[in-house]
Amino acid sequence: MNSYALLSVYDKTGLEEFAKELTAKGYRLLSTGGTAQFLQERGFTVTPVEEITGFPEIFHGRVKTLHPKVFGGVLYRRGTDDAVREEQEIPSIDLVVVNFYPFEKVWQEGKLTPDEMIEFIDIGGPSMVRAAAKNHRWVTIITDPTDYPGFLGLKDEEEAKGFRKKMALKAFLTTGFYDSLIARYLADGEEIDLPYFLLGGRRHQELRYGENPHQKAALFSVPPHSYIQGLQQLQGKELSYNNIKDLYETMALVADYPPPRPFCAITKHNNACGAALADTVSAAYRLALEGDPLSAYGGIIGFNVEVDEETAAEITKSFYEVIAAPAFSKEALALLATKKNLRVILQKRPPHRDLNLTLLDGGFLLQEQDNSLWRDQEPRYEQVAGPSLPEERIKDLLFAWTMVKHLKSNAICIVNNERIVAIGTGFTSRVDAVRFAVDRVKDSPALKGAVLASEAFFPCSDSIEVAFQAGVSAVIQPGGSIRDKEVIARCEELSIPLFLTHIRHFKH
Questions:
Q1: What average pLDDT score do residues 149-154 get?
Q2: In the predicted model, what is the mean pLDDT of residues 243-270?
Q3: What is d(CA 118, CA 116) in angstroms, rounded to the nearest whole number?
């Protein structure tokens, strides 16, 4: 065999063993810079690229393989362009092995300046990969060391043909993913203002199935700061598609209450069924459970602080799918281990979404994520009706407003002493959402004096009437209805304090 294998890799995993096998198969090794040095130091005969091109590497390695003799050797059509190739003394390159500068890794580390980051944008590597992938009828492209054995194990041309096509597909996916990283880095949060949008993900794990058993599913992570990569499963069955969705929404809610004060949220089917702030972890869990103990069964529990032995003991008295927290005591883990199927998740990084994507048939919707809560600034609200409130009730109002942001519209959240008393979520009518919430707890003393939050405006005063009759003492909502004056007037008549936030948290 007179053809070349062009090797130019940053990741040199398995390269020495692969080069031995290639040499044994009769390939001549053609290489660049650090890869050539790596092979030469291990006794391989290597032809440097500059020997073929007659041109040295320049600009500190920015230009190495970008030359007609290299790309001609990859791109020429066998049997069609042979005469031109021979006339121009272009080598035949039948195998291209390339992987890229680690842009993703250095971005995640966050230690480099913008000028330094630019130097990790690979140009020659992706260009060679795309050229080889285009010409996969004759040329094999390998971008991943895990594919070395597959190439070496090929038995005949028919098998090789299928392998080359598969590797070409993987190559274009690889360059697309790489380009998406760079585009997101350069966009710096301005993606919506740009004419194109790229989203690249790496498969994190295959899933048994999707929302239902007949649906295929997989979990992908999106760099650089992937919440998924910050999850560590300590025990229990593999997370399902639905588990992952529920876990994400749970911990997004938990993220709105950073330590040190303990916070617990319990969710079911992407909605909170209980949540509470308290002075201890166990109290936060107990109060959250009181929100809706029936719905909590089989749900997801999230904490913002370490789970201790006392809390774990309480949790083991019921059935849950998943429990997640930033830390667990040794004693807590020992108790949780008695529930073998319970998935225990150590969350190293809280969720933070910049963009929200919804796929459509033939397109997608893209919007900024609703992150407009009062984290590092004073809460913004306006009292427009009713008497003044004590500080404790103001805290409840703000707690309810935070909770209702995470519920599906139309959504209502009733709160007392910084814990969820009841919710009404996913209704087509807002007054029905209110009726449902108050009916669930109509005999509970926690309803008296509670406050109510609505994630969107009240279109009529009927919801206020229902809330007042149930014992609700104050209401917070965005405002913005053409009937705001009617709603405000009715609150004045009933002496119900009404607060407007002038921001909507509608979750369709």
A1: 96
A2: 93
A3: 5
At residue 479, what are phi and psi to the nearest 5 degrees?
A: 80, 180
- Edge-first strand order for the sheet with 322-325 is 231-235, 343-347, 322-325, 300-303, 263-268, 271-277
**Amino acid present at 102:** P
pLDDT band at 352 (very low <50, low <70, confident <90, very high): confident
Backbone angles phi, psi at 137, to 5 degrees: -55, -35
How wide is the angle at C-alpha 244 spanned by C-alphas 246 and 338, nearest 5°? Answer: 90
The 3-state DSSP composition of the chain as helix, strand, coil percent (nearest 5) reads: 40, 20, 40
422-473 pLDDT, tens digit each: 999 989 999 999 999 999 888 888 888 899 999 999 888 999 999 999 989 9
Q: What is the DSSP string of 392-438?
A: HHHHHHHHHHHHHTTSPSSEEEEESSSBEEEEEES-SSHHHHHHHHH
Residues 6 or more apart whose Cβ sits within 8 Å of residue 140: 94, 95, 96, 132, 151, 160, 163, 164, 167
What is the number of alpha carbons within 13 Å of residue 36 lying toward its C-beta? 16
Residues with catalytic annotation? 134, 269
Give the domains, in start order, of the chain with CATH numbers.
4-190 (3.40.50.1380), 232-347 (3.40.140.20), 382-500 (3.40.140.20)
* pLDDT greater than 90 at residue 353: no
Query: What is the number of other CB atoms lying within 10 angstroms of the CB of residue 493?
Result: 13
The dihedrals phi and psi of 477, each to the nearest 5 degrees, come to -160, 165
- How many angstroms separate the CA atoms of 423 and 459, rounded? 19
Cα atoms found within 13 Å of the Cα of residue 130, Cβ hemisphere only: 12
How far apart are the C-alpha atoms of 1 and 396, rounded to whole Å?
A: 78
Helices assigned H by DSSP within 41-81: 49-53, 68-75
Peptide bond into 270 cis (omega under 30): no
Confidence at 98, pLDDT banded by 50, 70, 90: very high
pTM for the whole structure: 0.84
Nearby residues of 301 by Cβ (< 8 Å), 6 or more positions away: 250, 264, 265, 266, 285, 288, 315, 320, 322, 323, 324
Q: Could you tell me if 268 and 300 are in contact, meaning their C-beta atoms sit under 8 angstroms apart?
A: yes
Long-range contact set of residues 212-220: C-beta below 8 Å, sequence gap at least 24: 215/241, 217/241, 219/244
Omega of the bond leading into 223 within 30 degrees of 0 (cis): no
Q: Quick one: pLDDT band at residue 5, thresholds 50, 70, 90?
A: very high
pLDDT tier, 183 (very low <50, low <70, confident <90, very high otherwise):
very high
Output the pLDDT for position 378: 62
C-alpha span between 365 and 127 (Å, rounded): 31
